[in-house]
């Protein structure tokens, strides 16, 4: 009897979820903060150094520096800046949405140490003699912009002006900002059109007062900036820039639009695939995946998280990965329907049988995500955060959400004896009366003998390894500045660019690039790399020049040799830790041989991606490491699905000989082949969409994912299970030999 109340409950629940998401999604999206790579801005990692010999960088000094930087950022009017102390001597500053990046960099790094000196560069007064917050921008008696400051002690200023007056004809009071001992001097600068000192006033009388005016060739903006700097106070340390990345507002806006568009296409393809291939459960998958996306954005909003470009990529990729849980469950239900079970029975067995597989697959990916978060930089941390949230959200929606919604449809009894609504051809359904424990699930791939061709698969992988090794030894990797150090500049123009044109423009700035690579549909973008690390002045000139030339502020990233080595070391450590974590987990949940086989498959995939990048000469950067670790997590998913089926068949059958073992592995691969292809297809849809329509900034990341997905599916089906079979067969033979020996020994 059909229970219509269940159908009504299903539709009411869907309408309720749709209404809730429809009315609140826009507000949630608006609340989410965008990272600097999506709205423009920059990130700088400073090494903190003492200003005087013998001084130590303590925790208090670092906190004092953070406080001083905060005051300066307030001057810039940047909302919600982020300043973090890292280690014992580093401070990372992230400013998203800052309009004038050159000014911001200058204000942050300027020590703002004001000194009053004579013409012989002797210090007469310094910033400690100023009243805190007493500087302001004013105008002098001739209407020129000036800076009014307040001194603490009128008598001290009287003594200073008296001393300078007595030095006639050199009775000049020189005011400096950040005077460098042994480098700067009044004698060097006095004849220059734009001297480094900010003022050099002749003293013709003694002043006994606290109000002093600094007069120079200021614009109103320059005078205001100086007053703000003096009020913010001098930095107690010297800041050395060792890593930086800046993104122009136009780059960020374009990246956001492109990636969202790519996401819509990728997700739409996944939805369409699920509807066509799984039909009624596909409708449930579309609903739960929609809730999944909403849930991720909601949690991210609650966390007050910052959404980055890799973060959006992780969200889009997460949709493809989230649907895996649906596919694992639906395929188990389809298997039971093919064995002639009733819909209710198939639903219960399918849910129960798929839960452990989904749990194992998700935990291994979380291990990779946690390692990424622990060892990655800010953008990679953003990717890792979104990846972890995605996995947790997918587990809730794909497991519990699917069970709730699909359960209502199944328990309505409306679809009993209608297997086609679940993507099962009625012709493939066996007679339940003829089904035994040894009956295999009907599959289209029953004719494929995977074990028979295992040597061929090993030869193919061996050949790929040899070719890859030769490529790495000869061509090596095209390392980006993240690992090789240097400077990278991304230029964008409304018209097509040429290498010669970019070279000529750089020549005007007296800059010699290592290489120039054109990209974009019409070569409207150029990636320029320099061997050395450009300093702040060079970056400022470069940004101003190309913004004026092309109307778009370029992106500039710099990495010092020290940081480059650290990033390379951390990348190696992260892959190693993720691999060890997965070995331990798979060993505990399955067995040691399966864990080792899984790791060999993972190393196979990682090596394939590396060799692919060596062949194509694509740039290896931090997002490449994120892609490798994502594939490490994803590839193990597929391997676990296969191993889970092997374990299931081993329990059902008595395995006594190597032939029995081969049959189990072969049946397991035949039964999971369709599932493996379907799960990888859904992720490929999202990755290809990112590759074709996404931002240039994550193009290499998408390439790495695509190569890894293909390799991961291959290794899960043709390497991991086959290796396990070889090792398990040896174990079985040894066990048989021992039993034979015991049986052959005479009884005493």
TrEMBL record:
Membrane topology annotation: Multi-pass membrane protein
Entry GO terms, CC: plasma membrane
InterPro entries from the UniProt entry: SecD, SecD/SecF_arch_bac, SecD/SecF_bac, SecD/SecF_CS, SecD_1st, SecD_SecF_C, SecD_SecF_C_bact, SecF_bac
Annotated transmembrane regions: 260-278, 283-300, 312-333, 354-375, 387-410, 456-475, 567-588, 595-616, 622-643, 677-695, 701-727
Keyword Iron: no
Keyword annotations from UniProtKB, A to Z: Cell membrane, Membrane, Protein transport, Translocation, Transmembrane, Transmembrane helix, Transport
Ranges of residues in domain Protein export membrane protein SecD/SecF C-terminal: 240-403, 552-729
Pfam family, one: SecD_SecF_C
The keyword Transcription is assigned to this record: no
BP GO terms, sorted: intracellular protein transmembrane transport; protein targeting; protein transport by the Sec complex
GO MF annotations, alphabetized: protein-transporting ATPase activity
Domain annotation Protein translocase subunit SecDF P1: ranges: 65-121
Principal cellular location given in the protein's record: membrane
Subcellular location per the Swiss-Prot or TrEMBL entry: Cell membrane
Entry's family note: In the C-terminal section; belongs to the SecD/SecF family. SecF subfamily. In the N-terminal section; belongs to the SecD/SecF family. SecD subfamily.
Protein function: Part of the Sec protein translocase complex. Interacts with the SecYEG preprotein conducting channel. SecDF uses the proton motive force (PMF) to complete protein translocation after the ATP-dependent function of SecA.
Xref: PANTHER family: PROTEIN TRANSLOCASE SUBUNIT SECD, PROTEIN-EXPORT MEMBRANE PROTEIN SEC
Assembly and oligomerization: Forms a complex with SecD. Part of the essential Sec protein translocation apparatus which comprises SecA, SecYEG and auxiliary proteins SecDF. Other proteins may also be involved. Forms a complex with SecF. Part of the essential Sec protein translocation apparatus which comprises SecA, SecYEG and auxiliary proteins SecDF. Other proteins may also be involved.
Protein name: Multifunctional fusion protein
Designated gene of the protein: secF
């Amino acid at each position: 009897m059909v229970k219509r109340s269940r159908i009504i409950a299903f539709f009411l629940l869907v309408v309720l979820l749709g209404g809730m998401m429809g009315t609140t999604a826009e507000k949630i999206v608006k609340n989410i903060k965008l990272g600097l790579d999506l709205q423009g801005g920059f990130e700088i990692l400073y090494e903190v150094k003492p200003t005087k010999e013998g001084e130590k960088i303590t925790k208090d000094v670092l906190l004092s520096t953070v406080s001083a930087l905060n005051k300066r950022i307030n001057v810039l009017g940047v909302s919600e800046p982020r300043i973090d102390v890292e280690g014992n001597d580093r401070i990372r500053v992230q400013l998203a949405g800052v309009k004038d990046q050159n000014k911001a960099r200058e204000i942050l790094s300027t020590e703002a140490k004001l000194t009053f000196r004579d013409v012989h560069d002797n210090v007469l007064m310094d910033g400690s003699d100023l009243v805190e917050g007493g500087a302001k921008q004013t105008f002098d008696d001739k209407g020129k912009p000036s800076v009014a400051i307040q001194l603490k002690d009128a008598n001290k200023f009287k003594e200073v002006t008296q001393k300078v007056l007595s030095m006639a004809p050199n009775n000049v009071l020189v005011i400096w900002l950040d005077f460098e001992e042994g480098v700067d001097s009044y004698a060097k600068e006095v004849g220059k059109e734009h001297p480094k000192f900010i003022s050099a006033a002749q003293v013709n009388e003694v002043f006994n007062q606290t109000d002093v005016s600094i007069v120079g060739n200021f614009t109103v903006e320059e005078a205001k900036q100086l007053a703000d700097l003096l009020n913010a106070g001098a930095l107690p340390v010297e800041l050395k820039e060792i890593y930086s990345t800046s993104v122009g507002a136009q780059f960020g806006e374009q990246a956001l639009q492109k990636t969202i568009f790519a996401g819509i296409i990728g997700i739409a393809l996944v939805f369409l695939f699920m509807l066509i291939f799984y039909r009624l459960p596909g409708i449930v998958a579309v609903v739960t995946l929609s809730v999944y996306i909403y849930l991720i954005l909601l949690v991210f909003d609650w966390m007050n998280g910052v959404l980055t470009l890799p973060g959006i990529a992780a969200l889009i990729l997460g949709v493809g990965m989230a649907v895996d849980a649906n596919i694992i469950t639906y395929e188990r239900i389809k298997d039971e329907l093919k064995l002639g079970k009733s819909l209710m029975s198939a639903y219960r067995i399918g849910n129960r049988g798929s839960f452990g597989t989904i749990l194992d697959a998700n935990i291994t990916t979380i291990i990779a995500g946690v390692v990424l978060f622990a060892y990655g930089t800010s953008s990679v941390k953003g990717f890792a955060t979104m990846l972890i949230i995605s996995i947790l959200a997918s587990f809730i929606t794909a497991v519990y959400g699917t069970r709730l919604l699909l359960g209502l449809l199944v328990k309505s009894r409306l679809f009993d004896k209608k297997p086609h609504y679940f993507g099962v051809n009625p012709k493939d359904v066996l007679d339940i009366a003829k089904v035994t424990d040894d009956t295999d699930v009907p599959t289209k791939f029953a004719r494929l003998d995977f074990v028979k061709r295992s040597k061929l698969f090993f030869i193919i992988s061996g050949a790929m390894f040899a070719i890859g090794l030769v490529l790495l030894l000869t061509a090596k990797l095209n390392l980006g500045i993240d690992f090789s150090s240097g400077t990278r500049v991304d230029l964008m123009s409304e018209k097509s660019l040429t290498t010669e044109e970019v070279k000529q423009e750089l020549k005007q700035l007296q800059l010699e690039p290592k290489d120039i690579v054109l990209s974009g549909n019409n070569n409207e973008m150029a990636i320029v790399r320099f061997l050395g690390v450009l300093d702040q002045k060079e970056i400022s000139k470069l940004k101003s020049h190309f913004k004026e030339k092309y109307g778009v502020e370029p992106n500039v990233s710099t990495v010092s040799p020290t940081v480059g080595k650290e990033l390379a070391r951390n990348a190696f450590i992260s892959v190693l830790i993720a691999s060890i974590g997965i070995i331990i987990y798979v060993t505990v949940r399955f067995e040691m041989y399966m864990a080792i086989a899984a790791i060999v498959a993972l190393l196979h995939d990682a090596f394939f991606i590396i060799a692919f990048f060596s062949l194509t000469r694509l740039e290896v950067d931090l997002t490449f490491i994120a892609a490798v670790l994502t594939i490490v997590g994803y590839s193990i998913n597929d391997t676990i699905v296969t191993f889970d089926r092997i374990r299931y068949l081993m329990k059902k059958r008595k395995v006594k000989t190597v032939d029995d073992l081969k049959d189990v592995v072969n049946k397991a691969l035949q039964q999971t082949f369709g599932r493996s292809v379907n799960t990888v297809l859904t992720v490929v849809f999202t990755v290809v969409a990112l590759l074709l329509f996404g931002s240039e900034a994550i193009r290499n990341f998408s390439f790495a994912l695509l190569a890894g997905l293909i390799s991961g599916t291959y290794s899960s089906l043709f390497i991991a299970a086959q290796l396990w079979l070889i090792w398990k067969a040896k174990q079985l033979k040894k066990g048989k030999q021992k039993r034979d020996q015991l049986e052959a020994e005479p009884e005493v």
